[in-house]
Design goal:
- Helices cover about 65% and strands about 10% of the residues.
- With about 425 residues, the chain is α+β, with helices and mostly antiparallel strands.
- The protein has three domains: about 210 residues, no CATH class; about 60 residues, Single alpha-helices involved in coiled-coils or other helix-helix interfaces (Up-down Bundle); about 120 residues, Heat Shock Protein 90, CATH 3.30.565.
- β4, α9 and β5 form a beta-alpha-beta unit.
């Protein structure tokens, strides 16, 4: 299976919700378990450094710590994004860009220098500190409330928070301490919200800009590759088809010119032959330009254009197109080209006896519409994306339009090609 995707559209920034109850729960967990995790990682780092010269065991330990830190950073981004509904992209491991051990080391260095990871780890540490403060203040608040009512039990001495003992007559003043501790708890919750949304939100915006740049780069490269493949196809078709035919027409007319006085009947036959060849060349040129863009697509829409493609197909095509109205030109052209080229490949290479084409309008999880199309044949399968091939041209066209493509063609068949292209009506 081959899948090429383009990143999703950017989310609109929104004011994060307060969610005080969940924030308090998160702080309580971070104040207890957070420090346990930090302690384990600190101990592992110390052990790794200490074992560096013991048969390389320390290197393995430090590598494990790096992966653990990356996982912890991923968890922190997901935690804050889920808690405050931030549109943050997940932290992803950057793979090696070259094979071998050197490529692996470069990949480790790239991920170790990932600013989003360290920002998330810093937020985890700050959240653990604020959680510990909030948890201590919460315990002190509850202790103060209980101690404030201690005189009701006829006690002479009251154990106040922080190990302080006071006279029972002064115990009611502990209510003020309870209010102060409650203020600290609430302050920690708001502080956690402000700091976390600032740090993780900033990394989310940076990640979103990176994704936009990557999307633009991928689309531009796809458009350039599609143009190169299309140019190569046109040159090949002209050189192998139309050009020899036109040369033959010229030679035939030249012979007819020589025979027109001596043998008019033979000259007439040669002119008729040249006329037939000219019509065939015109037909080939029409088919060639139709591969670039179908005029019927502008005039009558995707349904009519695909009906014409299905009618010209060398194998029977079951066409099922259900679209409520017209869509933007680029989206329709990308879907049209993908289906037309998919049917051409099925007829030429798959030994299929029939094909099915389905086109629908769908929406992604953000409500953005896109054209979904599926081409399936009952051929022998084994289709692969080769540079300059038909599937490569389809992939480049779809990616250049900002869409995605999935090709599933196991050996023995069947072959299924699906494209998703964002559109606007």
């Amino acid at each position: 299976m081959t899948s090429t995707t383009a990143p999703p559209a950017a989310h609109k920034a929104a004011r994060p919700p307060l969610r005080l109850g969940l924030t308090l729960l998160h702080l309580a967990v971070m104040g207890s378990l957070g420090w346990a995790v930090i302690g384990l990682l600190g101990g592992a780092i110390g052990a790794g450094i200490g074992l560096l010269f013991v048969l390389g065991v320390g290197v393995i330990v430090l590598l494990g710590v790096l992966y653990a830190l990356f996982g912890l950073a991923w968890f922190e981004i997901e935690r804050i994004a889920s808690l405050y509904k931030l549109p943050a992209h997940s932290l992803t491991w950057r793979p090696a860009t070259q094979p071998g051990f050197v490529g692996y080391l470069k990949s480790l260095g790239t991920n170790l220098a990932n600013g989003r990871m360290w920002a998330a780890l810093g937020n985890f540490l700050l959240a653990s500190i604020m959680g510990a403060v909030a948890l201590g203040a919460l315990q002190a608040m509850l202790h103060s409330i209980v101690a404030a009512f201690a005189p009701l039990a006829d006690a002479d001495i009251v154990n106040a928070p922080f190990g302080i003992q006071i006279e029972a007559s002064r115990a009611p003043w502990l209510v003020l301490l309870a209010l102060l501790c409650a203020g600290v708890v609430v302050g920690m919750m708001f502080l956690h919200r402000a700091i976390s949304t600032a740090i993780i939100g900033a990394t989310a915006r940076e990640s979103d800009l990176t994704e936009r740049v990557r999307t633009t780069t991928v689309q531009r490269e796809g458009a350039m590759r599609a143009a190169a493949v299309e140019r190569t196809r046109i040159e090949r078709d002209l050189h192998d088809g139309v050009q020899p035919r036109l040369v033959s027409v010229g030679m035939t007319l030249g012979i007819a010119k020589q025979q027109i006085d001596e043998n008019p009947e033979q000259a007439k036959e040669l002119v008729d032959e040249a006329h037939t060849s000219t019509k065939a060349a015109i037909t080939e040129l029409r088919q060639l330009t139709r591969g670039i863009y179908a005029s019927v697509l502008d005039d009558r829409g995707l349904d009519a254009a695909l009906s014409a493609v299905a009618g010209r197909s060398h194998i029977p095509v079951n066409l099922d197109v259900r679209l409520p109205h017209r869509y933007d030109r680029d989206a329709e052209a990308a879907v049209y080209f993908a289906i037309a080229e998919g049917l051409t490949n099925a007829a030429k290479h798959s030994r299929a006896s029939e094909a099915r084409v389905t086109v629908r309008l769908r929406e992604d999880n953000t409500g953005r519409p896109y054209l979904w199309a599926r081409v399936e044949d009952n051929g022998s399968g084994g289709a692969k994306v080769l540079p300059g091939g038909g599937l490569d041209g389809i992939t480049n066209r779809v990616v250049a339009a900002g869409g995605t493509i999935t090709i599933d063609s196991p050996a023995g068949g069947p072959t299924a090609l699906e494209v998703n292209v964002p559109c606007a009506s």
